Structures are given as C-alpha cells and as structure tokens.
C-alpha cells in the first residue's frame, strides 16, 4: 500500500479556533514565564510536556488543584520501573476538587427520556454530597472500602460518586442494564461493603423493574462481605417498590442516619484509589482496573480544559451510562466549574429529533456521542440544523469506536461549520485520552488532531521500531509513564496480570492495543481498529475501520450496522480471509447486486486486497454494554475457538449467529442450494 493511501480522504473540514484564545495557550505562556522558556505553540508545548516531568507540576498549578499538602516533588521510583509514584507526600481529596463552586448556578442538569428535566445547583449538590457522605460514615464505611452502584445517570448518582470519594472509599459502578452475571463477575472480585441500586428505571419506553436482579446480586455478595443495600426510588413513581430484601434501606432513610455528621473531605495521597473500572474483555472475568484519585483528577481536567477549552460558562453533555469511563470523565467537568448533563435513557426514544432539540435548548457547548449515534442521525435522514440552531455548540466529540472520514464529514455538515468535530482514543485503561482534540488545530476528515499533552505516544512496528513518520500503521504505544496509569488490577498480588495486559509486547512500554497511523502531511492520527482485530489477508495488514469508512460513505442507508473480521483457517497454506457481516435497515434483504456494489466500492476505495471474501446478512451485531462492536469474539468463533461470552456482551445471544460460519463452505453450499444432507 502506498504511504498516504490512508489519507486519500484527508479533507480539511474546519478551521481552528484562534490559538491565542485557548487555555492551552495560557498554559504555554505560564510555562514560558515560569521556566524562562520559548515554547512557541502547542507542538512545542507537547514536546516539553513529554520531555520534562515538571510539566505535571506546571499543570497542577495551572488547574488550581486543591490540596492540603501541596506537591514538592513530581515523581519517584515505584515498585515497578513502569509504575512510578506521582506527587509523593501530597494530600488531596477528589470530591473537594470537584465541588469547585457553591453558588446557585446549575451544576448538573438531570434529564430522562421521559422528558423530565431537573436542575441541581452547586449549592444543592454540595448539600446532597454532604448528606450521602454522612450516611456512608454512619454506616461505618471507611477509607479504602469498596462501595458499588447499579445505578442510572442522575444527580444522585453523581452525588454518590463524590460522597464516596469524600470519605476516601473506592467507587465502582455498573449501569442498571448489566445482567446479574455481569454484575457478579465484577463485584465478587472487589467485594463491596455497600451497594446503591435502582429499583425501577425506563429505557426506550420500557419500564424495567430491578428488584429481582438486585436481590439476586445482594444475596450472593452477602457471602463476600456485603453489609447492606441502599435503594433508589423508582424513576417513575418516586417510591421504592415492594421488595423482600433484608439489610436494606431507602436512600432517604440512609441519609437520615448520618444527618448531623459534618462534611470532612479525607485528605489522601495522590495515588489513593478512587474508582475501579472494568476491562471490556468479552470472554472470561473482566479485569478490575484501579484508578487513583489524583491521576483521574489531573488527567480528566487536562483533557477537558486544554483539549476542549472548557470553562465555567460551558455545558458538557456526554451521552453515557454510569458503567463507561466517559461517566467519570464527564463528572470531572465539575472541577472546572462546568455544568454537566446527566442523561438517562435512550437517545432514540421517543425520537432522536427530541434528543437533538434538547441539546440545543440546554445550550450544550460540548456534546459527547459515538459513531453509532451519528450513523443513526444519518441513516434516519435527520438534519440537525433543520431542527435547531445549536448556537452554543462548539464541539462534538465522538468516541467509543473509530470515527471514519465519511462520518467526520457528515457530522460537520450536520452541525455546521463552526462546530469542531473531534474524536479521540484512550479509554478505561487510563480514564483519559492518549490522542484527542486540539481545538486550535485544523480538522481533517477522519483524523484525530494530535497527541494529548503529557502523553508520549508513538507508533511501533512489531519489532518495536518507531514508524510514525513513515505513514505506515502500527501499534499505539506510550513510551513514558503518566499520572493516570492504573494503580494496579484489584487482586493481582504480584502485578503479573497488569504487566501482561500492557507491558508484555514491548517490555517497559505501554501497548494500548489500537492500530494507528499518522498522516505525514497534516500530522493527524487515524485509528484503524483494534490491533488484535487487524485483518491480514495475503500479508496486507489493515484495520476494520478502513472497511467501515467505505460502507458508511455509501451504504449507511441500507446497513444499520456492520462487522468486518478475519477468519483464520486451520490449513497452513491458506491465508486469513476477510468476512463482512451486515445488519440490514428496515427489513431490507441483502441481494447479490448489493454485495457486488459493496465489493466494488471497497476495491475502488481501498484496493483489491481489501475486498472481503464473503458478505453475509446477519440479524444482529454483537456489542459490548458500552456499545462497542465485538470483533475479536466473532473472529474467534468463526475461527473455531469455543467461547463463553462474559457479562460485558450486551447481546450475548447474537454470538450464536456466527458459529455456523466456522463451516463456511457448508454455509455457502446451503446458500447456493447445494448443501449435502446431514447424515
Ligand atoms: C476516550 C475513549 O477512548 C473512550 C473509549 O473509547 O472507551
């Protein structure tokens, strides 16, 4: 493949924000003044940020992190060479930093698909956090205890996360749609002392009763140290429904018990655990990724303030459940005085148009969505600007999967030329971005604008050689430590699971598992897919994202979703073959003519070697609970590996649809009517 083939779509979409008006520029100038440097622009600032660890102290000061013992030192060696200790000796509290205001302005807008909207002021938020923290203390929750949630996105769930942090406990949560086995796979490992749970929620117009699930989970976890359950009232009736759970109270009774306990923000080391998030492994139990309070605070504030230029006049609406890392990511906006939107429900119910009008009406400045959301807007023929002016909207941030060049272009047209379309990658493992938005840099279709400050991102070939200047794709690696490296995996005593997950392929260097390429001309970055899903027919290595880009450009009106994987074949002389699975829109049927058109579009858009060997219609595409397509599990299934899906798969039954493709020849024979009768 020629060097720049990945960038044939590199179309300039929008002009940058004046660099002198950005917060990143203010940081650059502050660093120049403080250290007598002459950093000229964001690129110089990035070079400084990955060459001198003092950058993190500069950032600390710039962000105004609140601490009772301020840092005197940035970094010192830790137990492992790749896991240093950050800001040793410092004492701070995450929740104290997030409760950055106490006025009557709006801190959280809570919205539900039912149309109900409730504002929570900074003053009310502080009070609610104090009440829940009092309840936690009255219940005997101590520093380092685990507190877990099965909760929807709401004012109370945000207040709960802050209250847990205030008392120094460790918070972990799943969305209410996770099945009981998925919840237990997680919480049996971390052994929470208290669980906060919803009792009745709504999703896509359906009332979902949670009492049976919560009862099953609680009864199981009692064997593992669970002391009690706190129930949130039904989002419909406002009351706790009938249940037969023992050792449980309603949230209102819970806080009554701690009524007179004053708020104390425990002052804890920078590395003190804040959240436990979970890897989205689709087979086997998820890994419990422990993140530090200081690391999450500094990194998420950095991304929001310097990547998105957020400030206290703005509103950040990240569409997310409480189970995805984008939830804590959004919550950190509070530390910048930003108003956040806690939305619960489907964006497509009762109507995607209503959701878009809500975004405009609430004056959202940064909207976080996924490529899937944009595909739906496009597939349903919706033109957002016909619905509302989106006057306040400054950036649309798509994450969770690759945002292909056609989707960048669509998003730009959809929201207008003044909106910055951004994508990024990082995720659960670091609770921030490795690469992401730089609002002062031009946007090219399909390209992430740059490496995040402080992140020493490079692109490696399999031998560990940096190939980022060649225009060839490779592994996204990070060659220096940064503050939100996970503290550890829970229960991984010798740290071996942790080392294997990130530092195995290139000893001492973090491998993220993304297949990435850099445009030598624009310096923009493009994620081509997950690196373990790289397609490799006839020795050409490419990412599924390249195929999705072609499909989204020309076929989004007929395909609701697609999945492209490589099938390994047992015969040594046979190459991997590329299979494309498509889920049709609105009852359409996949015809031979459509298949031929798809193959032709891929051949002309990419190359003959990218053309899938076969295209099949399937009833469903497997996705994780965070709505990410599951390629690896399907690749394993069609290559003959027996696989037991984990609770991370949102629609595990869909995986069954792919088993028959292990006998691909049999499927093809059946399709052509030549199936041999089974004896
Ligand atoms: C920032 C991200 O990378 C989010 C994700 O994809 O999980």
Automatic annotation (TrEMBL):
Family annotation (SUPFAM superfamilies): Acetyl-CoA synthetase-like
Protein name, UniProt field: Acetoacetyl-CoA synthetase
Domain (AMP-dependent synthetase/ligase) ranges: 104-482
Family per similarity comment: Belongs to the ATP-dependent AMP-binding enzyme family.
GO molecular function, one term: acetoacetate-CoA ligase activity
Acetyl-coenzyme A synthetase N-terminal domain mapped to chain residues: 43-97
PROSITE patterns for the chain: AMP_BINDING
Pfam families reported for this sequence: ACAS_N, AMP-binding
Organism: Schizopora paradoxa
InterPro entries in alphabetical order: Acac_CoA_synth (IPR005914), ACAS_N (IPR032387), AMP-bd_C_sf (IPR045851), AMP-binding_CS (IPR020845), AMP-dep_synth/lig_dom (IPR000873), ANL_N_sf (IPR042099)
Gene3D superfamilies, per database record: 3.30.300.30, N-terminal domain of ligase-like (3.40.50.12780)
Taxonomic path: Eukaryota, Fungi, Dikarya, Basidiomycota, Agaricomycotina
Highest rank taxon of the organism: Eukaryota
Region (Disordered): 1-20
Biological processes, Gene Ontology terms: lipid metabolic process
């Amino acid at each position: 493949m020629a060097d720049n083939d990945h960038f044939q779509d590199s179309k300039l979409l929008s002009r940058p924000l004046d660099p002198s008006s950005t917060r990143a520029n203010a940081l650059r100038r502050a660093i120049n003044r403080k250290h007598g440097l002459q950093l000229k622009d964001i690129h110089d600032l990035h070079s400084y940020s990955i060459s001198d660890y003092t950058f993190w102290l500069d950032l600390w000061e710039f962000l105004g992190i609140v601490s009772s013992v301020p840092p005197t030192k940035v970094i010192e060696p830790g137990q492992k060479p790749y896991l240093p200790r950050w800001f040793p000796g410092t004492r701070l509290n995450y929740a104290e930093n997030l409760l950055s205001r106490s006025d009557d302005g709006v801190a959280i807008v809570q919205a539900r698909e039912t149309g109900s909207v409730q504002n929570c002021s900074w003053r009310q938020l502080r009070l609610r956090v104090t009440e829940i923290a009092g309840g936690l203390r009255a219940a005997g929750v101590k520093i380092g205890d685990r507190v877990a949630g099965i909760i929807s996105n709401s004012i109370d769930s945000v207040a709960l996360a802050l209250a847990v942090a205030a008392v120094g406990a460790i918070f972990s949560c799943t969305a209410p749609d996770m099945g009981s086995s998925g919840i237990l796979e997680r919480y049996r490992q971390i052994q929470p002392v208290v669980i906060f749970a919803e009792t009745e929620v709504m999703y896509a117009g359906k009332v979902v009763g949670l009492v049976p699930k919560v009862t099953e989970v609680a009864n199981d976890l009692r064997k593992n140290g669970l002391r009690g359950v706190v129930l949130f009232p039904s989002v419909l009736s406002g009351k706790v429904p009938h249940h037969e759970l023992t050792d449980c109270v309603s949230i209102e009774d819970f806080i009554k018990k701690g009524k007179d306990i004053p708020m104390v923000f425990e002052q804890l080391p920078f590395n003190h655990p804040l959240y436990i998030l979970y890897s989205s492994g689709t087979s086997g139990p998820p890994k419990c990724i422990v993140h530090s309070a200081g690391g999450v605070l500094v990194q998420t504030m950095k991304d929001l303030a310097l990547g998105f230029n957020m400030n206290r006049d703005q509103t950040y609406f990240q569409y997310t459940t409480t189970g995805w890392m984008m939830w804590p990511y959004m919550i950190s906006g509070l530390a910048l005085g930003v108003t956040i939107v806690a939305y619960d429900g489907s964006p497509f119910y009762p109507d995607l148009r209503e959701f878009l009008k809500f975004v405009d009406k609430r004056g959202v400045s940064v909207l976080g969505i996924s490529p899937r959301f944009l595909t739906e807007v496009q597939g349903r023929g919706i033109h957002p600007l016909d619905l509302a002016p989106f006057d306040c909207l400054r950036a649309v941030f798509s994450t969770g999967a690759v945002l292909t060049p056609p989707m960048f272009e669509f998003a730009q047209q959809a929201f207008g030329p003044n909106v910055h379309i951004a994508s990024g990658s990082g995720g659960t493992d670091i609770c921030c971005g490795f690469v992401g938005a730089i609002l002062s840099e031009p946007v090219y279709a399909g390209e992430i604008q740059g490496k995040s400050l402080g992140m020493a991102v490079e692109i490696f070939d399999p031998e560990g050689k940096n190939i980022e200047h060649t225009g060839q794709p490779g592994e996204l690696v990070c060659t220096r430590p940064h503050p939100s490296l996970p503290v550890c995996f829970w229960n991984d005593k010798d740290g071996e699971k942790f080392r294997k997950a990130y530092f195995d392929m290139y000893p001492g260097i973090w491998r993220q598992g993304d297949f990435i390429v850099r445009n030598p001309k624009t310096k923009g970055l493009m994620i081509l897919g997950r690196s373990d899903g790289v397609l490799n027919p006839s020795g050409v290595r490419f990412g599924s994202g390249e195929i999705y880009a072609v499909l989204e450009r020309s076929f989004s009106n007929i395909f609701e979703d697609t999945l492209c994987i490589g099938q390994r074949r047992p015969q040594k002389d046979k190459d991997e073959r590329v299979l494309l699975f498509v889920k049709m829109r609105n009852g359409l049927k996949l015809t031979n003519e459509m298949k031929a058109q798809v193959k032709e579009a891929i051949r002309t858009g990419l190359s003959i070697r990218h053309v899938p060997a076969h295209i099949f219609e399937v009833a469903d595409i497997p996705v994780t609970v965070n709505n990410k397509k599951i390629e690896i599990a399907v690749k394993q299934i069609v290559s003959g590996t027996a696989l037991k899906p984990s609770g991370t798969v949102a629609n595990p039954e869909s995986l069954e649809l792919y088993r028959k493709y292990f006998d691909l020849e049999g499927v093809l024979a059946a399709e052509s009517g030549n199936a041999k009768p089974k004896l």
